[in-house]
Amino acid sequence: MSSLAVASTGASGPAFVQGSSSSQVGSSCHLRRAANQLPAPSAEAGISQVTPLLGLGVGTAAILATSKRRGKNVQKSFVTACAFENELGVQAPVGFWDPAGLSADGSVENFKRRRQTEIKHGRIAMLATMGYITPEITGKFPGYLSPSAKLAFSDIPNGLAAISKVPSGGWAQILGYMAYCEISQDQSAGTPAADGDFGWKVLTAADPEEKTKKLAAEIANGRLAMMAIIGMFFQDGLTGSAWGDWANYTDSPLRAFENELGVQAPVGFWDPAGLSAD
User: Fold this and answer.
1) Distance CA 119, CA 222 (A)
2) Whole-number mean pLDDT of the chain?
3) Is pLDDT at 23 greater than 60 in this prediction?
4) Are 122 and 221 in contact (CB under 8 A)?
5) Number of Cα atoms under 13 Å in the Cβ half of residue 48
6) Which ranges constitute the DSSP H helices of the chain?
7) CA angle 201, 206, 212 (to 5 degrees)
8) Strand partners for 268
9) How many degrees, rounded to 5, is the angle at CA 30 between CA 57 and CA 110?
10) Torsion angle, alpha carbons of 214, 115, 171, 128, to 10
11) Could you give the CA distance from residue 197 to residue 115 in angstroms, rounded to a whole number?
12) Distance CA 28, CA 247 (A)
């Protein structure tokens, strides 16, 4: 056993090469490449050196035979991660993260289509988030939203309640502008617009490294905004206003036990498993 351990240590030691990628996925890819490039054992090595390695090989083959199916899945995941490890959006500390396995097929075309959709939805979510926040801080525009209906901007509530207050003509304008943004430029695969470049370069940079940093920041902020706007929708829908107090959520099943012993600040009534939901 001692010679086998020494042989396995000696065989695996030179295979470690420092990866250039900051993510763990990148390091793993570099390790695999380095392992594939190891020189073959010298013919001058004695039988005493070869024998432990043969034993190691037999043991490894037996392990691989018992986990053939798992090995295929791991290899597929590994190859997929390596395929997209250097794309924008692969950021520390998570690295390449695809829990739903959407990129498991390794298709670059599908990956770019989903990236185009992610960037677009992220930008919309950032605008929507600011649309929730800004009126609460700065107030509404002066004047009338619809002079014919005598409807002032100040008459429009913030948040989801505005949906039923905006006239049909206003919604037609909103939908018309959305359609214009979609069809005004060619967004087919391979075009600048497919990568999110519509020619509006206010926040760009001439330095390639700085530009990459800003593009990565846009994706990260877009992801955060998508989570934020969904949270705002839920809070608005449950409390009745965009920044509603949770105390207004009178239908909450948590209220049945909010005055029981053990309900203490700052958590309050906490039942993440929903054991008291009935």
Assistant:
1) 7
2) 74
3) no
4) yes
5) 2
6) 2-12, 24-36, 47-66, 68-83, 108-138, 168-183, 208-239
7) 80
8) 264
9) 110
10) -40
11) 13
12) 49
Report which residue type is found at 277: A
Instruction: Confirm if 240 and 234 have CB atoms less than 8 A apart.
Output: no
Three-point CA angle 75, 220, 96, nearest 5°: 5
Query: Does 14 sit behind a cis peptide bond, omega within 30 degrees of 0 on the bond before it?
Result: no
Report the C-alpha gap between 13 and 272 in whole angstroms.
46
Selected residue with higher pLDDT from 90 and 167: 167
9-23, 67-81, 184-198, 207-221: which range is least confident on average?
Answer: 9-23
**Which band of pLDDT confidence, cut at 50, 70 and 90, is reported for residue 55?**
low
> End-to-end distance of the chain based on CA atoms, in angstroms?
59
Is pLDDT larger for residue 74 or for residue 240?
A: 240
Cα 220 to Cα 91, 119, 224, 226: the distances in Å are 9, 10, 6, 10
Six token digits for residue 124: 């919309």
